[in-house]
Amino acid sequence: MCPAGAYEDKAMSYVKDIDLGWGEILKNLSESDATSVKVGIQSTAGQAADGKISMAHLGAIQEFGGDIKVGAGSTTVYHKVLKSGNFARGGRFVKKSKSNFARTVSVGAHKISIPSRPFMREGLDKNKNEITSLSTDLAGRILDGKTSVNQALKLLGQQAEKGIKDNMSSGGFTPNAASTVKHKKSDTPLIDTGRLRQSITSVVE
């Protein structure tokens, strides 16, 4: 009869570790310096058109709502004077190019209230199925060695970007105030010049 240890030695002699690529996968994952992707308006987006707040600050105000404080100052307004000496259009302002009379008026300190227009949160919520599906596909491609973690995160960021930007154009947000419509000639918020939309980017970190 053989000692018990002999059976253990004989059994162990048939154990063979076959690496089917898992070692390479672990090596690639450990070498990747990317762990997340940040989507939205980055700090590098610069200043808003008025130069007083950043694009990120402007985006946050539009997303969550808030008040913009405007200090006291002065502005030039334009009118058109008729031959009769009366103001045209009942004295209402006109564009500079159509005016023949200008005056400087003082404007007291005031605030502009912006309603919440959650273009980023809604954009991601509406796009969550596409993002989840892409995440699952990319995870498989990473394990198969067909793509890198960095590239996968980049593609996920681009998908999230698209969802947010599409929502900015199609979302049913609170329309612009009457005074804003008069200035911008549109009651559609968020896409006046397109700069806010263009500021939506993604960064792999």
Structure write-up:
The chain is an alpha+beta fold. It is 42% helix and 17% strand. It contains 8 helices and 6 strands. The protein has a two-stranded antiparallel sheet with strand order 1-6. The chain has a two-stranded antiparallel ribbon with strand order 2-5. The chain has a two-stranded antiparallel sheet with strand order 3-4. Helix 4 packs across helix 6 (149-170) and helix 5 runs antiparallel to helix 6.
- First-last Cα distance: 63 Å
Tell how many strands the DSSP assignment holds: 6
Put simply, the count of helices is 8
* Overall average pLDDT: 83
Order of helices and strands: HHEHEEEEHHHHHE
Proportion in β-strands: 15-25%
The radius of gyration is 30 Å
Percent helix among the residues? 40-55%
Q: Would you identify the regions where 5 or more consecutive residues have pLDDT less than 50?
A: none
Q: How is the topology of this model organized?
A:
Elements: H1 4-12, H2 22-31, E1 37-41, H3 55-64, E2 66-70, E3 73-79, E4 101-107, E5 110-114, H4 119-126, H5 128-143, H6 149-170, H7 178-184, H8 195-198, E6 200-204
Helix pairs in contact: 4-6, 5-6
